[in-house]
What we know:
Layout: E1 2-4, E2 10-11, E3 18-19, E4 26-27, E5 29-36, E6 46-55, E7 65-67, E8 75-83, E9 88-96, E10 108-116, E11 136-143, E12 157-161, E13 167-168, E14 175-183, E15 191-196, E16 201-207, E17 216-218, E18 227-233, E19 241-250, E20 261-269, E21 282-290, E22 295-302, E23 329-336
Parallel strand pairs: 2-11, 13-21
Antiparallel strand pairs: 1-5, 3-4, 5-9, 6-8, 6-10, 7-9, 10-11, 12-14, 14-19, 15-18, 15-20, 16-19, 17-18, 20-21, 22-23
Amino acid sequence: VISYDRPSKQIDLDDRSCTLGDRRTRVPCVAVSVTMKYTGMGVPDSLDFDLNYILDAKKDKQKRMFLLEAEGDSTMTKRIKMRKEQEFTERFKVYLLGPNIKDKLTSLDVQVKYSLADTNVRRGELVPVLRLGNYMASDSLNIQKDCGPDNKCVPDLSLSINPIESYLMGSEDKLEIQADIINRGEDAFNAVLEVHVPRGVNYVNANTGGSGVSILCSSPTPINNNTLSCEVGNPLKAGSTVSVSIILKPQTEGLMEPISEFAFHVASKSSNPEEGSEADNSFLLSVPIRVETDFRVTGLSIPDQVQFNMSAPLPDRYEFVEEIGDVVTHVYDVRNKGPSSISEAEVYILWPSFNDYEDHLLYLLGF
Length: 367
């Protein structure tokens, strides 16, 4: 049988009644008692048992419970000697890491597996065996939560997003999404704000302004479907609001085809589910893209003037190209001073090809 010094089987993370070996760090702790007794027909008056203690048995990794006498360890193995019909009791303390625990919902299980040690029996005696079963004892604690008498928290999260009128493509301005996460229900554990960042937008940072609330964000990558995830509370207390400002920088590079808007899928969620109030947990923020260009064409003629005598008779043939006339070179400068980019542009150039008598005047030599 496993028992605790807490009749409620709840541990308060703010009640730090134990001190670690450094004599400075205070941690929440609880005393555990393990009681065993064996009996049977024809069994020896004393037997050796092997015990394997496992703390936080539901967690293979990221353990939350540890032995106070062996800091950092969540398992213990020992061999004990027991006498028939007499109780064996062992007491020890376990501790938790306090408010830094991420998973506050899964129960904290203490598990003891037992087995008979190798027993030397006399000639003609039967070897003792355990009756059929799983040879294990287990009991659980729960982290105390502000969830009422049933210790079950049902949150009611909702999102409020400030609309963005438009974004001028090609500008150096950053795009800022202002989101409020409101919890009108009970405590929300592992509350997160998720934003799917569309193609053509880079994540810069996120903050809560001067509210004093700290958030931890993981950047969007192709591995997480380009989704920004920010932890906003564990728990996000009942009746509280967290305002998050997400800074982004749109870019024109990498866009294979023109787009008219940026669409951001924003959602709030927690590890303890809501009950029928999820409709206001998500929001589609559409930001229209505005395009402004300053398209200019200037030119230069070399030479800037050419003399042409219309009354001069034209020869029947020319011996050299230079006899036809001067070469005129036009240099055109096509510029887009932005701020938006132009993916494709066409420039039409017209020049006087014939004179008033329909005779050739200028003709294209090359470009």
